[in-house]
Amino acid sequence: MRALVLLALPVALSGCIARTAVDLVTLPVRAVSAGVDAVTTSQSEADRARGRQLREEDERRGREARQAEERARREARERGEDYPEPQPDRG
Questions:
Q1: Do residues 3 and 24 share a domain?
Q2: Alpha-carbon distance 73 to 82, whole Å?
Q3: Does 47 share its domain with 34?
Q4: DSSP single-letter state for residue 80
Q5: Cα 16–chain centre separation
């Protein structure tokens, strides 16, 4: 029984040792790859960031337009003038 275990041991350990050797050899490559991924921006990330920036600018312009509209209404009301209601877009 002991002889059988001793004969099977090198076969069982050879896969483990080979896997460890492969892990050690590929470790520097994986480390460099992770570093490059961390400092570069993919095209999809850039597209998402640009889309977010455009949406935020659009929201800001809309907010400013609504504030200007309200300010104009208030000033017209203070002067006793009628302020025309905005017409809905019919495009």
A1: yes
A2: 8
A3: no
A4: T
A5: 38
Same domain, 2 and 35: yes
pTM for the full predicted model: 0.47
Total number of domains constituting the chain:
2
Q: Write out the E strands in the chain.
A: none
Q: Where are the alpha helices (DSSP H) in 1-91?
A: 2-39, 43-79
Q: What does each of the 91 residues of the chain score in pLDDT, given as a tens digit?
A: 666 555 555 655 566 666 776 777 787 878 888 887 777 778 899 999 999 999 999 999 999 999 999 999 999 999 988 877 766 666 5
CB-CB contact of 69 with 86 (8 Å): yes
Domain that holds residue 24: 1-39
User: Distance (Å, rounded) from C-alpha 55 to C-alpha 87?
Assistant: 24
